[in-house]
Amino acid sequence: xxxxxxxxxxxxxxxxxxxxxxxxxxxxxxxxxxxxxxxxxxxxxxxxxxxxxxxxxxxxxxxxxxxxxxxxxxxxxxxxxxxxxxxxxxxxxxxxxxxxxxxxxxxxxxxxxxxxxxxxxxxxxxxxxxxxxxxxxxxxxxxxxxxxxxxxxxxxxxxxxxxxxxxxxxxxxxxxxxxxxxxxxxxxxxxxxxxxxxxxxxxxxxxxxxxxxxxxxxxxxxxxxxxxxxxxxxxxxxxxxxxxxxxxxxxxxxxxxxxxxxxxxxxxxxxxxxxxxxxxxxxxxxxxxxxxxxxxxxxxxxxxxxxxxxxxxxxxxxxxxxxxxxxxxxxxxxxxxxxxxxxxxxxxxxxxxxx
Length: 355
Known about the structure:
Layout (H helix, E strand, L loop, with lengths): L1 H30 L18 H9 L25 H13 L7 H9 L4 E2 L7 E3 L15 E4 L2 E4 L3 H12 L11 H12 L1 E2 L1 H18 L3 E5 L4 H8 L18 E5 L5 H16 L3 E6 L3 E6 L8 H6 L8 H5 L8 H6 L19
Parallel strand pairs: 2-6
Antiparallel strand pairs: 1-5, 3-4, 6-7, 7-9, 8-9
């Protein structure tokens, strides 16, 4: 009798573990917990959900159409002043006084107030692929900074309250903050957010791309709180650690072009170049198979004098910033310069970064 009970008990334990493993793996694939570097196979189980079908679509063999673009538009190349690209984004952040998201408590508050818009993992026009790949399952905490060699930890009771409210019902699901798996899933879903100005640009490019190639646009990164940016820096050298990282504003996103054929890359770059010429974005083609896109809040590029003043904050050496005025304006910068000059007051809810 005891032997029978023991066998039944062991069978139940094994069954429960098997069910847990299947659920865990399914969520890992759906929410992108498996890093993109490990998702190298061109075969995806399309019976899982629409996200898997979309991933299968973006990984399809292009055959003869594969390969890089014939030419990269000057609008997507580095400026002759190497820090001008980053300084342009810093200038917009300073001009509009855009709040920088420091940690997931901050992000929860921004989502609760509607300043950040959560977006689905997959639509007809785009698919999130690799978003939140560095998200962990640790307990939520405020972001620690250093001042004069000492750790500075801010207090944010409102952020904790916003996080708890979000965990109760976020995108139709509840999350147990005491459960590591739920914490990781919540982080990934929160990182799938953008400010409306950036989302509008992303949808515009994705719609045009899907209309021509019948594929969803792969988007690899959206908002990144500074806390997450520091963790991501360990595996992604393009994750900048300056005082005003663009992704922490929610105005930046990355498009993954590693699986695109030459004609697809050319089309996407030409679309981004067009929007940049209109003065609505800053953009660059990164070597790690991403197009980094930054949306201007009012669709107007910041003036050159403000960009020059932001060079040092963008990481340029002090000596280099002192000689910036003596240098000729980069060709691509002149092409992208806005013809409208008068700025308007930002509609973004602005707050001071340090509290």
